Amino acid sequence: MAGQPSLLALFPALESPIGGGIQAAGQIARQALRSSFTVRCFYYGPDAEKGLPASDVIAPTRLSALWQAARGRWTADLVMVWHVHLLRLLPFFNLPKARIAVFLHGIECWRPLDWWSERAMKNVDCFLTNSDYTRDRFLGTRPWLTRARTETTALGLGHPAPASPPPGAIPAALMLGRMAIEEDYKGHREMIGVWPRVLADVPDAELWIAGGGSLRPALEAVVREQGLERHVHFLGYISEEEKLRRLEQCRCLALPSRGEGFGLVYLEAMRLGRPCLTSTLDAGSEVIAPPEAGLAVDPGDTTGLHRAVRRLLGAGAEWEQWSRQARHRY
Fold first, then answer.
1. pTM score, two decimals?
2. 47 phi, psi to nearest 5 deg
């Protein structure tokens, strides 16, 4: 649109079948950017979307990404980098006058990056972060960036649900997310570990674990060892429709993680009036503001975790208040 500043947006593939919060939030961000800028998008990843504008570029492999970035004729007043791993591509676009913003999502931004990406950070004009926790962890690993401009920009997720449906008859806690060996910090082991104590108080309680990954076989083995097969259910990858159904049926979303930079799944639950169980060790508490929209515990505190799960699975005035406040906070 005439008069609008031009923006080049670098995204990972946003339609990955196992995509997480970065992809979901990226779709929302892309829509918002197009309302304010003349946007051209560059996608790196094998899962291409359908119906993209002809001006957008899809690079399914590293070699094609480097080739298309280097050979293209790029013009932009601003560059938005949606994932820190895409920083390595910046020099190949040859946009020395463009201002650069990078969105920091979570654990990948406080882990060591490749030399090219670390060097490219020196040219970033603003780091946007989804939480204060992400900002502090990121800057804590890179003291030479403590004077850099940062802005905390909490993520959003569409419009509020028209109503908060009642939960199902089964007192169930739902866990949503990848189960990868390299991400063995999301609280799956801790939740399974306390489930026998939960069952002592709530005999028909169930733990629903959605998602997949390399850690799943080890977690399934723990469930078998404890004889919990009737109470802990692995759902695998589920569709958006099934996810919505499970969120409506559960009594709470549980993700007592040690390293969430934000946790878009909390918003998905709060939108439907489902209180959340988060950790005191990461950004979950920023999202739900316990005890407003749920509870936060140290996942290493088994007694505290057991008590929190028991309360969140219960019916009554406390749960109804959490449900109302979760929707309000959303």
1. 0.84
2. -100, 95
